[in-house]
Specification:
single chain, 345 residues, alpha/beta, Rossmann fold, Dihydrodipicolinate Reductase, domain 2, 7-stranded parallel β-sheet
Length: 345
């Protein structure tokens, strides 16, 4: 039994993480930390927790949490994890961070795109990027695990095999991504209220979304060259799910068969699935699961490939992938305690 604690327990990601951990069977949750709801029970904040044993929420003392925990999940806003992670690492506690604080090899890129100073550059150098489909061996020995973002996971999994195989050009890639409202978090905001989002659909951060840089960096590392892309996210009037449509110029002579062959890299990956040419995924195939489903088609007329990728932003895009990484770090089966079939309804 691995002792774990969750800091930032009452945001959507923290709550989803605790929900999934409740079915894991190999963990004991020692602390669920919430600054806003300390002294209450998780069931006071989320009624779905009334069916399990009491889960008290605390303000969280780092020393007490560290003494009781083997692994800590940080579900905190960007900028806060870098203040807390070093304290746990110094105490010998492994950290899985779900913010963007440790996702970049070069902290200067983080500072440019997040607009804040990175105060833990030395700690950052030890972080492992937690995309299991490509970094499984590094994840096994990680002390500090940087869990990827939801848009980035969905986009990288669609494009990486094609770039790695030289099947598409590394410049001029366009990612048109749509996310459910839960991707914006639980904090109260008029822009994400019911009347503002229902029967509505809009783009935001059209050319400067911070996930652009994360996608470019990881695709560049995987393909061995510079990658330049345009990423535009959109807000869907649904609770959860991401669909990313990725457009790229085909390299000369590339066929649909070549693309399908490249996606065979996922044949032995339990949560990432490629569909036959011309068959495209939809949110119903992934929401409620830790899966990523990818489809594609090519346009001979325009010389372009269109790859469509779907995930559940709260599971494969956040909490589920964090548990997938936790499993790898702790010797569990990669799929242990994680949903493999979507809800559909």
């Amino acid at each position: 039994m691995i002792n774990v604690s969750v800091i930032g327990a009452t945001g959507y990601v923290g709550a989803e993480l605790l929900r999934l951990l409740a079915a894991h069977g190999g963990v004991s949750v020692k602390y669920a930390v919430s600054k806003n709801f300390a002294g209450k029970d998780m069931a006071d904040v989320y009624a779905n927790f009334k069916t399990i044993r009491p889960l008290p929420l605390s303000a969280g003392d780092v020393g007490q949490i560290a003494a009781a925990s083997d692994v800590v999940f940080l579900c905190l806003p960007h900028g806060q994890s870098m203040k807390m992670a070093p304290q746990f690492l110094d105490a010998g506690v492994r950290v899985i961070d779900l913010s963007g604080d440790f996702r970049y090899d070069d902290p200067a890129v983080y500072e440019e795109w997040y607009g804040m100073a990175h105060t833990e550059k030395e700690v950052n150098s030890a972080a492992v990027y937690g995309l299991p489909e490509f970094f499984y061996d590094k994840i096994k020995g990680a002390k500090l695990l940087a869990n990827p973002g939801c848009y980035t996971t969905t986009s990288i999994l669609a494009l990486a095999p094609l770039l790695m195989g030289g099947l598409i050009e590394s410049e001029g890639i366009v990612i048109d991504a749509k996310s459910g409202v839960s991707g914006a978090g639980r904090k109260e905001s008029l822009a994400f209220s019911y009347c503002e989002t229902t029967d509505n659909f809009k783009a935001y951060s059209a050319v400067r979304h911070r996930h652009t840089s994360e996608i470019e960096e990881q695709l560049g590392k995987l393909s061995g060259g510079d990658v330049t892309l345009l990423f535009t996210p959109h807000l869907l009037p649904v609770k959860r799910g991401i669909l990313a449509t990725c457009y790229a110029r085909l390299a000369p002579g590339v066929s649909a068969g070549d693309i399908a062959k490249a996606y065979e890299i996922y044949d032995d990956k339990p949560f990432t699935h490629a569909l036959p040419a011309g068959e495209l995924p939809e949110l119903k195939q992934v929401v409620g699961s830790n899966n990523c489903v990818i489809g594609f088609d090519i346009s001979a007329r325009t010389g372009r490939c269109v790859a469509v990728s779907c995930t559940d932003n709260l599971i494969k895009g956040a909490a589920g992938q964090a548990i997938q990484n936790f499993n790898i770090m702790n010797g569990f089966s990669e799929t242990h305690g994680l949903p493999r079939v979507a809800w559909y309804l």
